[in-house]
Amino acid sequence: MRISIYRYNPETDQAPYMQDYRLDEVSSETMVLELLTRIKAEQDESLSFRRSCGEGVCGSDGMNINGKNRLACITPVGELGESIEIRPLPGMPVIRDLIVDLSQFYHQYRSVKPYLITHDAEPEIERLQSPQERDRLDGLYECILCACCSTSCPSFWWNPDKFRGPAALLQAARFLEDSRDQGTAERLNELDGPYRLYRCHTIMNCTDVCPKHLNPSEAIGKIKKKMLKHII
Amino acid sequence: MKQIPRRRFDALVIGAGGGGMRAALQLAQAEASVAVVSKVFPTRSHTVAAQGGINAALANVLPDNWHWHMYDTIKGSDYLADQDAVEYMCRAAAHLVYELEHAGVPFSRLDNGKIYQRPFGGQSQSFGGPQAARTCAAADRTGHAILHTLYQQNIRARTHFFDEFFAIDLIKDDEGHILGAVVLEIETGEPLIIEAKTTLLATGGAGRIFRTNTNARINTGDGMGMALRAGIPLQDMEFFQFHPTGIAGKGMLITEGARGEGGYLLNRDGERFMERYAPNAKDLASRDVVSRAIYLEVKEGRGCGPKGDHVLLKLDHLGADVVKKRLPGIRDMALTFLGIDPAEQPIPIYPTAHYTMGGIPTNRFGQVVLPDGDEHEQPIPGLYAVGECACVSVHGANRLGGNSLLDIVVFGRAAGNHIIKYLKRNRYHRRLNPNSVEQALARLARWDRSGGGERVDALRAELQQEMETHCGVFRSAEILDEGVRRIEAIKARLNDVELTDHSKVFNTARIEALELENLVEIALATVYSARARTESRGAHSRVDYTERDDKNWLKHSLYFQQDNRLHYKPVRMQPLSVDSFPPKERVY
Ligand SMILES: Cc1cc2nc3c(=O)[nH]c(=O)nc-3n(C[C@H](O)[C@H](O)[C@H](O)COP(=O)(O)OP(=O)(O)OC[C@H]3O[C@@H](n4cnc5c(N)ncnc54)[C@H](O)[C@@H]3O)c2cc1C
Ligand code: SF4
Ligand code: SF4
Ligand code: FES
């Protein structure tokens, strides 16, 4: 099997290039992360990528595989066809090989106040929340910050400093939907203006690629509805 | 000494898992200047993978109280846990879980709006009576929910994070004070000195010493390696937990919560075999008990599949709704890695290396302690440890499921509080010790050597295989002797390992080499401690000494790197306020 991988080491390379590797005995269930690990172990120690959990829960190994942003550890080779091309997540500065600088992405996440805001005194036991209220967080709280969505969003590519991007907006929705949260007004005020929220043109790339099957596009829709009410 | 940049903080926390971040939060809220160093972005720490839940006797589903939880924990530990620490943890549990809820953790809910709790292994009402339901859960993504919430609260508290910085070694002065650490900025490859009045190790477990394991690739026990190199012993390293339900052949975890929700194990004859091994608790017996049962079923020819090498975990009778609602994460995992929907088909499972019960010895304030004579111990000034890298010891010889997430938040907070007090009494940084910095830098520089020596990856694979073969679920003098010989041989070869990649920018090969050094030291600590303990207790099962031996072995092991020396200290049998639970025969 032939695997073509984006390479760039700023210390030695003038420009990025694609390098081909061959691997034998690859079964269709093999995950792409395993291919990368094997290449690093058997052929080329210098190949660099992030990884940790190996089971799709830590969000370390988002990368662009055959044109789509995915997690290498839960992408089986069988889904990919004969040849495989692996590139870093698009639109972000490359630090080295498949490793990108996610500072902007994290900055946008921190900007949406991604924490529960409450004003009332805390009860001695848990705050109550009905199962139905809790259900509204499903599809929102599970985000692993892998950046697959934001780095597939054209609006984020053009305005990474101004548009919050799907991952951060999903996070905003996670708190706006939480029956315990009392920060609705400050959250919506923070998102007001032409860019932070409204640069989303519902292109849906984000939802297409999310490896956790979350739906940032729908979440953004919900925020926009809340915003309308809030402004009126 | 070459000019290396220096930063100064009141408190340094190494590790951004649940333990480190809970401590950092306590410190930041008390307005201490705190730096958190993590080799991965905080939410990628391994706490994120915890599935089933966190124990606290909230009594939301069934009657419960902290004293029953304490009893179960001590029994689960096979009486090796320190009873003062266990009492402290179980008493604090409810408060800590409410605190997490207040901080925003999206726990699953009951119809009355309270936190959802499920039964887990080793839990009972009334000191050994009927099954309890003590594990608070956010579906089967409890670790994710807790870790993200703690990170978010730290953002709010403006904790200073050093993301993707790798801690190399502690800095120590001649009087034995810990002064901070030398760390490596992974992105630039440049070292940095972080000076701090206190240093907290929260670097997690070392499951990567074994081939098949549930742990993330970053779980290489770096903090334990750093402690050993600073002359600090590791406690109870022979007790390594094998989780009964790993995906066969692959190792990913299927939470005990799957059995808590009503799943059970079957052998090739379709027999629910746990009824034979644990007539009362059945599939919810303690982990050591269930793992040994599976191992024996397979060994005696009752395994499933063409090779007879695993058993089955049946969940389909729970119905698709329960599986999707309560166990969505493991359903995803089974679909991804096996193409099996557990709502329809059973999951092939086999025991897999999971949790490091042993670690850096601490007291219940998180202070790292050294033995002082046979009975007493002394805290090391300025050094703390919490979480899976520490051994306080609340898990003793076998940890109960759901008690580790509890351990990390309870002792993370306790250590934070103790550090705040320490900082009030110790207002100034001590003078940096250049010798200690030099040593850390030499460790780094060693990897600049080039040549055609052995490869990191190959040696690590050998190490993991040897540990699996010679220090697994069942052990004997013969196997362990051989294990010691083989791991020593690997250590000797470590000297010849060389890198071909000497670049600076994000050099992950170098990080893996530094991690391998830690893995080898921890593997050695484990086999030496295991060889010496001639009894069976909790996770440590010897075929040549099948009984627990309280007369000779009701004591903690301490392994020192120098000369592989072992020392022992008594178990603290005296709780804080209630009566001691004396050792009894352990049946489930
Ligand atoms: C699959 C799985 C499921 C589990 N489920 C449960 C459960 O349901 N309930 C339960 O109670 N327990 C569970 N556990 C156990 C529990 O999750 C862990 O024991 C616990 O989360 C450990 O937390 P920690 O804070 O000690 O370490 P970790 O979360 O492992 O964090 C370690 C931190 O240290 C950092 N670090 C390590 N080395 C260095 C270095 N050299 N330099 C800089 N930083 C470093 C890492 O970057 C990371 O931030 C589970 C464990 C696994 C593997
Ligand atoms: S739907 Fe919005 S956020 Fe998602 S990719 Fe399109 S523009 Fe970006
Ligand atoms: S929404 Fe999905 S794709 Fe985006 S960061 Fe979260 S998990 Fe990744
Ligand atoms: S390695 Fe954790 S998500 Fe892939």
| Radius of gyration of chain B using CA atoms only | 23 Å
Secondary-structure element pattern of chain A, one letter each: EEHEEEEEHHHHHHH
Percentage beta strand of chain A:
5-15%
Distance between the termini of chain A: 59 Å
Q: Biggest interface and which pair forms it?
A: A-B, 55 and 60 residues
Q: Describe the largest sheet of chain B.
A: 8 strands, mixed
SS-derived structural category of chain A: alpha+beta
Shape of chain B: globular
The average pLDDT score of chain A comes to 95
User: Any low-confidence stretches of chain B, pLDDT <50, length ≥5?
Assistant: none
Bin the strand percentage of chain B: 15-25%
Helix content percent band of chain B: 25-40%
DSSP E strands of chain B, number: 22
Strand order in the sheet with the most strands of chain A: 2-1-5-3-4
What is the oligomeric state here?
heterodimer
Number of strands of chain A: 7
| Ligand names | flavin-adenine dinucleotide, iron/sulfur cluster, FE2/S2 (inorganic) cluster
Radius of gyration of chain A: 20 Å
What does the model show?
The complex is a heterodimer of chains A (232) and B (588). Chain A is α+β, with helices and mostly antiparallel strands. Chain A has helices at residues 32-42, 103-111, 131-135, 154-158, 165-176, 184-191, 205-209, 216-231; strands at 2-7, 17-22, 62-65, 68-71, 84-87, 94-96, 99-100. In chain A, strands 2-1-5-3-4 form a five-stranded mixed beta sheet, with helices on one face. Chain A has a two-stranded antiparallel sheet with strand order 6-7. With 588 residues, chain B is an alpha/beta fold. Helices cover 35% and strands 20% of the residues of chain B. Chain B has helices spanning 18-29, 66-76, 83-103, 142-156, 222-229, 257-260, 274-277, 287-299, 320-326, 328-338, 403-425, 434-445, 456-470, 477-494, 508-532, 550-553; strands at residues 6-14, 34-38, 54-55, 117-118, 135-136, 160-163, 165-172, 178-185, 190-201, 234-235, 240-247, 264-266, 311-314, 347-356, 360-361, 367-372, 376-385, 390-391, 474-475, 541-542, 555-560, 565-570. In chain B, strands 1, 2, 6, 7, 8, 9, 16 and 17 form an eight-stranded mixed beta sheet that branches. Chain B has a four-stranded antiparallel beta sheet with strand order 11-14-13-12, covered by helices on one side. In chain B, strands 3-5-4 form a three-stranded antiparallel beta sheet. In chain B, strand 8 and strand 9 form a beta hairpin. In chain B, helix 2 (66-76) packs across helix 3 (83-103). The longest helix of chain B is centred in the C-terminal third of the chain and has 25 residues, at 508-532. Chain B is globular, with a radius of gyration of 23 Å. The N and C termini of chain B lie far apart (60 Å). At the A-B interface, helix 1 and helix 3 of A face helix 3, helix 4, helix 10 and helix 13 of B. The complex binds flavin-adenine dinucleotide, iron/sulfur cluster (SF4) (2 copies) and FE2/S2 (inorganic) cluster.
